[in-house]
Design goal:
The complex is a heterodimer of chains A (276) and B (336). By secondary structure, chain A is an all-alpha fold. Chain A has two domains: 2-64, no CATH class; 74-243, MetI-like fold (Orthogonal Bundle). Helices cover 77% and strands 0% of the residues of chain A. Chain A has twelve helices and no strands. Chain A has helices at residues 2-14, 16-41, 58-64, 74-108, 114-126, 129-143, 149-173, 178-185, 190-219, 222-227, 234-243, 248-272. Chain B has two domains: 2-53, no CATH class; 115-330, MetI-like (MetI-like fold), CATH 1.10.3720.10. In chain B, a hairpin with a 5-residue loop joins strand 1 (57-58) and strand 2. In chain B, helix 5 (116-149) runs antiparallel to helix 6, helix 5 packs parallel to helix 9 and helix 11 runs antiparallel to helix 14. The radius of gyration of chain B is 27 Å and the shape is globular. Classes of the chains: A mainly alpha (276), B mainly alpha (336). At the A-B interface, helix 1, helix 2, helix 4, helix 5 and helix 6 of A face helix 2, helix 5, helix 6, helix 7 and helix 9 of B.
Chain lengths: 276, 336
């Protein structure tokens, strides 16, 4: 009995490779089927967007001409998009500079309380966004700061720094510091060494960190929702639409968002190698 | 004369600059201070404010009372202990309720029910654990395939394909899940072929939908760390084990799997924490029976309007997450 079980078990593992291919294919299907269905349905000729009724591009044409399709107002969507880009760009610039400096400090210096400080740096990545959003809301309330895109940028930087720092610090661990010593021995000062030796070598890390920070900011709904006041961002606008139910207008906006972001990221990964 | 003192002054300046440049702390301070300032003021201070609020009380009109006489542990007490009972009774009620829920057949161990907040907390932990287990069961074989069996030149492409959805908008992907699970969708029509699925059935607004959404969003976080630890394993060890008489299962279980454990642990923490703290996924995919602690916290700051209770709930949730990280570190895991 035991022997039979062991043989069956071993046989299963002998055929493992074939099963694993099937399993892997299944997971890719799981990851991409919903996206494929979403994109397909955005071309669906039906007001009740789930059942396929034939191909049409009329929802795209209508939205691109500025007409409202099933409560989705393209002007509002466009303004929300502009807000999102503005916040994300400002956030990326600030957090990339500060986060890279932070990564250097953590990589190169020992200072009292370093372990504790490193823990604090990881916290914004780990804590639930809802806690972060609400605590910022309370803070801005108490400090009497008017909510708006400004406060959204401030809040986003608070988690952006951590993402950049973690990614850049990982890159710095493989960095060969004798290169810097060589540059200094050859007469470069600190700034020249930084400009011509250090930065070019860790550029992929900084780029990856900035890309991650941008995605986190652009995609964030929960934190932004609490700290942006009356303004809109694309995720907030989209969430409002989704709450009202499935409709062709939402399908088109969703398909556009996902195709554009995935294309941009695919291009970035093509140039930089895999990033995460 | 004036020129001379000027020279002298710049000499002192240059000396000062030299001293500052040589000082061992300069680099650390310059590089640290912007981030330390930002994290201190816009991350730690807000958390401190929220922590302070969690000791407050709600006034008659939903305002927050924070005067000295209102401060206390009453919100935490309200969270954990049903009214008119003691800590011990509450503890027993919680344990009994957990046993009743997990073990089938046992119905009423305790007359007192734990508070709805405690039930919600454990339900969220349950969702988080289930999402972790499912992600592991589904993701591990895949990571193994990509890291060990797939041809080397496709590995990068395969792993990029795992990450790519993670970069695409979270809300849009949740909406895509809605499209699949709604009545009459492609998937549901396909499932209607099965005898026990009714025509026009929908899987939306259910606990299943929430779990599926959690796994869908967070499974890349399981696959990536497992993949990177499997990729580093020296598979000649497997051959060695089999030469010494182990069959394939034993070689995997005793030799390969233990070496991939760091990845599994990192992946588990990365899936568990955001899943247990989710609020958007249950809000969009779940029904009234599948809301989680994150939704409770949000509603206390919205429609329910009890900020101190919401703040207390937030810190209880953070406590659970710290515990899971502590467990991870005890198991030998490292941050980062």
């Amino acid at each position: 009995m035991m022997g039979a079980f062991r043989r069956a078990r071993a046989a299963l593992f002998e055929r493992g490779a074939g099963l694993l291919v099937a399993q892997t294919a299944f997971v890719y299907l799981f990851l991409y089927l919903p996206i494929a269905v979403l994109i397909t349905l955005s071309f669906n000729d039906s007001r009740y967007a789930v059942v396929w009724q034939g191909f049409t591009t009329k929802w795209y044409t209508a939205l691109l001409q500025g007409e409202t399709v099933a409560r989705v107002d393209p002007t509002a969507a466009w303004n929300a998009l502009l807000n999102s880009v503005e916040i994300a760009v400002a956030m990326v610039v600030i957090s990339t500079v500060f986060g890279t400096m932070l990564a250097f400090a953590l990589d190169r210096y020992d200072f009292p309380g370093k372990r504790l400080f490193t823990g604090v740096v990881f916290m914004p990545i780990i804590i639930p966004s809802i806690v972060m959003g609400i605590s910022l809301l309370l803070f801005f309330n108490i400090a009497g700061i008017q909510l708006g895109t400004g406060t959204a940028i401030i809040g986003h930087v608070a988690f952006g720094i951590s993402f950049v720092a973690v990614v850049v610090a990982a890159r710095l661990q493989t960095f060969d510091q004798t290169m810097e010593e060589a540059a200094m021995d050859l007469g470069a000062n600190e700034l020249e060494t930084l400009r011509f030796v250090t930065l070019p070598m860790i550029k992929p890390g900084i780029f990856a960190g900035a890309l991650l920070a941008f995605a986190m900011s652009f995609d964030d709904y929960v934190v932004t929702f609490f700290i942006i006041g009356q303004e809109n961002t694309l995720p907030i606008f989209f969430f409002g639409m989704v709450r009202q139910g499935i409709s062709p207008g939402v399908n088109v906006v969703a398909a556009l968002i996902i195709v554009v972001t995935m294309a941009l990221v695919a291009v970035a990964q093509w140039f930089q190698g895999p990033t995460w | 004369m004036g020129r001379d003192s000027n020279n002298q002054a710049s000499g002192i300046d240059a000396q000062l600059v030299q001293r500052v440049r040589r000082n061992q702390w300069t680099g650390a301070i310059v590089n640290l201070s912007p981030s330390a300032f930002w994290l201190g003021v816009f991350f730690l201070a807000p958390l401190a404010v929220m922590f302070f609020f969690s000791f407050g009380e709600r006034g008659a009109f939903g305002e927050v009372l924070l005067a000295a006489e209102n401060l206390g542990l009453q919100q935490y007490r309200r969270f954990f202990i049903p009214e008119d009972t003691s800590i011990l009774v509450a503890l027993w009620a919680t344990v009994a309720w957990l046993i009743e829920t997990v073990v089938p057949g046992i119905e009423t161990l305790s007359a007192t029910q734990p508070t709805p907040y405690v039930r919600l907390l454990f339900k969220s932990i349950g969702y988080g654990s289930l999402a972790t287990v499912v992600s592991f069961a589904v993701g591990y074989p895949m990571a193994y395939y990509i890291g060990h069996i797939a041809p080397e030149r496709y590995q990068n492409l395969l792993i990029v394909l795992v990450i790519l959805p993670f970069w695409a908008s979270f809300l849009v992907r949740i909406y895509a899940i809605q499209l699949l699970l709604s009545a009459n969708s492609v998937l549901m029509s396909a499932l209607a072929v099965l005898p026990f699925v009714e025509q026009g059935a929908s899987l939306m607004y259910s606990q299943f939908a929430v779990l599926l959404g959690l796994v869908y969003i967070w499974i890349p976080f399981m696959i990536l760390p497992v993949y990177s630890s499997i990729e580093e394993i020296d598979f000649t060890l497997q051959e060695a084990a089999m030469d010494l008489g182990a069959d394939r299962f034993e070689a995997f279980y005793h030799v390969i799997f233990p070496q991939s454990k760091p990845g599994v642990m990192a992946g588990s923490v990365l899936v568990f924490i955001p899943s247990a703290g989710a609020s958007v996924i249950p809000e969009l995919l779940g029904g009234t029976d599948s809301q989680m602690i994150g939704n409770f916290i949000a509603s206390q700051f919205g429609s329910a309007g009890n900020w101190p209770l919401g703040a207390a709930g937030a810190f209880v949730l953070m406590g659970v997450m710290l515990l899971s990280i502590a467990a991870y570190q005890r198991g030998g895991g490292e941050l980062g």
